[in-house]
Amino acid sequence: MLAGPYATMLLADLGAEVIKVEPPGGEISRQVSDSYFASLNRNKRSVCLDLRSAEGQTKLGELVSDSHALLVNMKPSAIKKLGLTYQHLRRHNEQIVCVALTGYGLHGGDDPAFDYVIQAATGVAAMTGDPDGPPTLPGYSAADNSTGLTAALGLLAQIVSGRGGQVDVCLRDVMLSQLNYRAAAYLNDGTAPKRYPFGAHSYYVPAQLFPTADGYLALFITHDGFWRSFAAEAGVTGFATMAQRAAAREDVLTAVTAALAGDTAVNWERRLTLLGIPAAAVRSLPEALEATPDLVVQAGDFRLVASPIKIDGFAPEYRPAPVFQAAQSS
């Protein structure tokens, strides 16, 4: 519903001709809401095929013979049963790239694997939230979106190779990959991740959310130069090196919290960013969208967030998501 459509929409935004294959009755995400479907399927065409029928399989073969790639976001048994693998489709096109986007891999079984389930299974939920509270899920579909990006990358890499073949991308593996330094700390040093208040970073201090006179501020001090500039602006003394700040985490956080209480989050953001210090007031999504009107585009009847990929000399055309047509025509 999200990972595969997001991957192919990114490609469509960049100029690829993307044909969405929908079953009789339409793709299930059409039932969520019109804006949900539009947000993941702009710039695509659509064709209705019953892949369980001989006629549907014939039409699929025709599409494959004239395409660079096929991306499928279904459970492994359905992908294999419907013949949506490279091994099955290479007879139509030896150069076709077949991407299987699944929960646990093309050969990993059919266990249900929606975004929240994967975040729970890979440790993301366990390391998110207040240390004295329950595990927490991020407020958006981090696993689905990340896997969509990864699938698009794998698809393009295999096309560039010129070999064709099967690409296997799954939500579980992508999320574990994105836990890179957390996983490495455990695998090599035996250090399991722990939660800190206000989402504090495990290495850098201070790097977390802080309460201010009005609102919360995200502050991310990663090296001593940032600290010197911040300390001078905020009137904090001591803790000159990264090692000293890590060793005296609680003392540093107490001093920084007291200093930041003297002004609002928005004012601190303005003051610190002028000094080149990474800081931002916590905003709601509506506030963030209002602050970035250049990233809001019109696609048919819907206002949507623009493609995040900018290429010199290329301006995406934002066309509406396809209307479902039951007849087998594109």
Automatic annotation (TrEMBL):
User: Is NAD one of the keywords UniProt gives this record?
Assistant: no
Q: Which PANTHER family match?
A: SUCCINATE--HYDROXYMETHYLGLUTARATE COA-TRANSFERASE
Q: Any keyword Lipid biosynthesis?
A: no
Q: Name one GO molecular function term.
A: CoA-transferase activity
Q: What is this protein called?
A: CoA-transferase
Keywords attached to this entry: Transferase
Task: Tell me the domain of life.
Answer: Bacteria
